[in-house]
Write a structure and sequence with these properties.
single chain; about 350 residues; alpha/beta; TIM Barrel; two-stranded antiparallel ribbon; 13 helices; binds 1,3-dihydroxyacetonephosphate
Length: about 350
Amino acid sequence: MNLSELNRVALAMVTKGKGILAADESSGTIKKRFDSIKLDSTEEHRRTYREMLFTAPGAAGAVSGVILYDETIHQKTRDGTPFAQYLARNGMIPGIKVDLGAKPLAGFPGETITEGLDGLRERLIEYHGLGARFAKWRAVIDIAAGIPTAFAIQANAHALARYAALCQENDIVPIVEPEVLMDGAHSLGRCAEVTEQVLTVVFDELFAQRVQLEGMVLKPNMVISGKKASERAPPEAVAEATVRVLKRHVPAAVPGIAFLSGGQSPTEATLHLSLMNRLGPFPWALTFSYGRALQDTALKAWGGVPANFAAGQTEFARRAQLNGAATTGRYAPEMESRAA
Ligand code: 13P
């Protein structure tokens, strides 16, 4: 393991003004996204869509890295350049999703365990050869009556740390993603409580399994009301609660925290990030690693129509730039109408 190289990459991933594009939707998830624009999920459509995002003029200035899916890291731009190579040449670090998804946890109804540890070392070696310098593993924790259980949190944290240690062994920066879902009707307070439990156990496991904190990036949920909550906490409350929880649980040795958007609207996700950055300085960088919040409006603008390729790119670059501004607290909702 080369810790100084891992630390250099981790710092580059969370550099001010930039964040990460999560474009690692599995075949099932991208099909759902394409269904929303009535587009068949063929390999060529998936390739074209990813090319639209990666080559969007003006986006690279706000994108430090891109998380790819196994199929995507094997694909090329129209002119034959492998995506990973294209990204690296344009200053965006290629990353790769390596988990194989959250599956039902036997004996624990309503809870999941993320799979993918078997054979992971060999896959990491292959992905490093293809240019990946960081990876992602997503653990999923749902909130409902009687869940999450302490056991499900422990099992998921254990797997996250196993993954992270294997990544570092192979000179790949692990993005450690314990996602507390915002799907339920729970309050912000309940989300805070569960997020605290999860982060406590995750960092215990990372220490126990000798993961070097300087060579990782944390990808947490924000502390936020459930989508179905009757009363949703305002943006300022989300920012304050999220920062409070992270200060309590994330050691200063971690270079950066890159949030998932988790079903927030694009403008909410940008505003929350900006409000948090205004509460700094912090020992770590706070940035984005958004999937839906960066892509949703671009996907609609494109709509699978070749003539709208540039319109999709303009929209993606706009959202990336607005989120880039949010990493320094300089985003304001008024910028929505002026940007790009
Ligand atoms: P969302 O921002 O859409 O939550 O996706 C981020 C991600 O990579 C989830 O694993």
